[in-house]
Amino acid sequence: MAPGGSAPGAARLGAARLGGTEPGRELVPRPRGRLPARLPSAAQRAPSGAEERGRAVPAAPAPGRLHRPSASTVRSSLAWEMKNSRTEFSTVSSLCVQKAQSSVHLGSVKGKTTKLFTASCISTSVPNSCEIQMQEQVEILDWKTKKQLCFLDKVEPNATIREIRLMFHKLYPRWYPARQSIKLDPKGKSLRDEEILQHLPVGTTATLYFKDLGPQIGWTTVFLIEYTGPLFIYFLFYFRMPFVYGLDERFTSSPHPVVNLACICHSFHYIKRLIETVFVHRFCHGTMPLRNIVKNCLYYWGFAAWLAYYINHPLYTPPSYGKKQINFAVIMFLLCEAGNFSIHVALSDLRRNGSKTRKIPYPTKNPFTWLFFFVSCPNYTYEVGTWISFTVMTQCVPVGLFTLLCFIQMTIWAKDKHCTYLREFKDYPSLRMPIIPFLL
């Protein structure tokens, strides 16, 4: 009798798998290539400890005859082989098909089919690697009605949100990936394209919510439209077109040099923006809702027309402090423009290889980038400084109001980016403020 009441068949099978033999007995190796055709009957199965009492140990099978172990013994032995990577690959290869999924069934036990496991064997540089892969299911619901839009089956766990968007686009061609907003919660934030499904807090069946963002337009096109408008609108007032100030003042010029200087600075600012849009900027989000272009154009174009009307008006008066005020404002304007351009180049270098991964920006050898020591968004700081200097130069109320609105909007953007940096990077510099050093 085997010690502990274990089955003699299990002991012999375990010894054979571990490369040893039972003293005085010869074991014939099992043919490779496939499993036994059927499981042993109840009479042939190894007896339990209770059944063994009072019975003699059965003799070993005759040479040349295959011994059929119990289903539980085979199940435990196969599990041991899958767990230990040192198992002989020829034995495991009989259970797995390379680079394909296969289900192993062990006959019929009491009329029921027993499924052992589903495995995927991948042939690598180490020939005995066998990897078990699980596939997930993705359910996509409408964010407002909670109605099921589609059910994606057999999704790989390492699939990204971008891949899920493409799968959804195949089912609904009118909702291209840029138009889709995929969320974990109907009121939550949209998931980024690079996020991986298995890293999200979901089970084997992930429930995602879809929101239609509407028709989209590329950011490059958006900026070109927004910045080209103010450039040409300003010229309509500078050259005093007949429909602007009347026939008596048509095509006349202002006697004040500051008016000409203001036109040069205004044009330089928007030409710089157009050049940055084409050659410098790298956008992490490629598109914007088409409906927002109308709002943005009204803001930029409307303010350009308003401030140009007063600066180029025949009754316009120059600044109170004359040339000193104008010269100081021009110097500050040029410095802020150079700083803004330097920051945009530094931010663009972080995504030089087309990467969309967010990184911490640091100062470079360029002195204009040293503002990164104190603020998270120095490009907004320089932008506000540009419009403050333009306000001082022209001493015009509409320009001052436009500068105030710019500061409010850019402060909101800067705070949002600053919070994102703090949330994503634990080692983010603690001295930095969103937009104004040491204050805000």
Write structural notes for this entry:
The longest helix is centred in the C-terminal third of the chain and has 28 residues. The protein is an alpha+beta fold. The termini are far apart. It is built from twelve helices and nine strands. A hairpin with an 8-residue loop joins strand 2 and strand 3. The strands form three sheets. It has a four-stranded mixed β-sheet, with helices on one face. It has a three-stranded antiparallel β-sheet with strand order 1-2-3, covered by helices on one side. Strands 8-9 form a two-stranded antiparallel ribbon. The N terminus is likely disordered.
Tell me the distance between the termini: 83 Å
| E-strand count | 9
Coarse structural class? alpha+beta
| Largest sheet, strands/sense/barrel | 4 strands, mixed
Helix content: 40-55%
Q: List the helices and strands in order.
A: HHHHEEEEEHEEEHHHEHHHH
Shape: elongated
Q: Show unreliable segments.
A: 1-29, 33-37, 49-61, 85-132
The radius of gyration over CA amounts to 37 Å
* Quaternary class: single chain
Tell me the β content: 5-15%
User: Biggest sheet: strands side by side, in what order?
Assistant: 5-4-7-6
Q: Provide a count of the helices.
A: 12
Average of the residue pLDDT scores: 78
